[in-house]
UniProtKB/TrEMBL annotation:
Classification lineage: Bacteria, Bacillati, Bacillota, Bacilli, Lactobacillales
Protein name: Pseudouridine synthase
Organism listed in the record: Streptococcus urinalis 2285-97
UniProt keyword list: Isomerase
InterPro entries named in the record: PsdUridine_synth_cat_dom_sf (IPR020103), PsdUridine_synth_RluA-like_CS (IPR006224), PsdUridine_synth_RluC/D (IPR006225), PsdUridine_synth_RsuA/RluA (IPR006145), RluA_PseudoU_synthase (IPR050188)
Free-text function comment from the UniProt entry: Responsible for synthesis of pseudouridine from uracil.
Amino acid sequence: MIFEFIADRQVKVKTFLKSHDISKALLAKVKFKGGNIWVNGIEQNAIYLLNIGDVVRIQIPDEESHGSLEPIDKNLNIVYEDDHFLVINKPPGIASIPSAIHSNTMANFVKAYYLQNKYANQQVHIVTRLDRDTSGLMLFAKHGYAHARLDKQLQQKVIEKRYYALISGKGKLAKKGDIIAPIARPTDSIITRCVDSSGKYAHTSYEIVEAFENDIYLVDIRLHTGRTHQIRVHFSHIGFPLLGDDLYGGRMDCGIERQALHCHFLKFTDPFTKEIQEHSLDLTEDFDSVIIGLQKK
C-alpha cells in the first residue's frame, strides 16, 4: 500500500513521516520487509533532508496473517467498509477476541472474511472492542498504519462512541450527568472490575431517553474513556446497574438475559480523507422487545 504526502517544512524524512503517525517500528518494516520511500520519484532513505513542496511517497509492506488466529467462516453484518476501515454490527453473545474460554470470536470471523476476499493485509486490527454480551458497532482497521492513526484519535479522545442501556435502581435518576470514578481490578477476581481510588481515571456521560415504572430508565451514554466494563461498573456504582447484568447486580426479571447494552453510534475522522465518518444502528430485537414491554405497562 502506497501513501503520498507533501513536505511542508525542511526536515528529515523520518521526522516528517512521524508527524503523519508513521512510527519507528513501521519505518523498520518499510526498510526490512519490502517497503520503500521515494522523494520526487527518486528512492531515498529515512534520513534524507526534505525541502518544502517535496512529494514523499511511502510503500508499506503487506501484513501476513497471524498463524495463531484461526479463521472461522461466519456471515458478518457489515455497516461500512473501505480500503482502510471496517465497521461491523456485532451481535450479543460473541466475544471480540479469543481467550481461554472463547474461540468463536469477531476476530476469527474477520480473519476468515479477509482470507475469502484475498486482501493484501491479513492481520486483524480491532480499534474498538465490545464485551461478549454487548451488541452494536465495532470498528476495525484493515492495516497497521490505519490502526496507528486511529489509536492516536483514541488517545486524544476524539472518537465518539454512544450506547443505549436499560438501567434500574432505587429512587430518581438525574436527567443527565457525568460519572467520573476510577476503575480498578479487585484483588479477588480476574473478571470483574470495581470503582477504587487505586484505579485508572474513567469518565462516562449519560442522558435519560425514556423513564419507565419501577425506576427503570433507557439512557443514552457516551464513553470518554475506555476501561474494561466501564459502563457496567459505573452504573452499578451509582446504584443503577444494567438490566440483565447479573455480574454487577442487575435485575434478571425484565426479559433480557444479557446486559442491556448496545453501541448504537460511532463517529471518527478518517485520517486519510479528513472526512467525518458517522455510523448508527437500531436496537437489537431482544433489547427492543424489553422496551416495548415496559411501554405497555
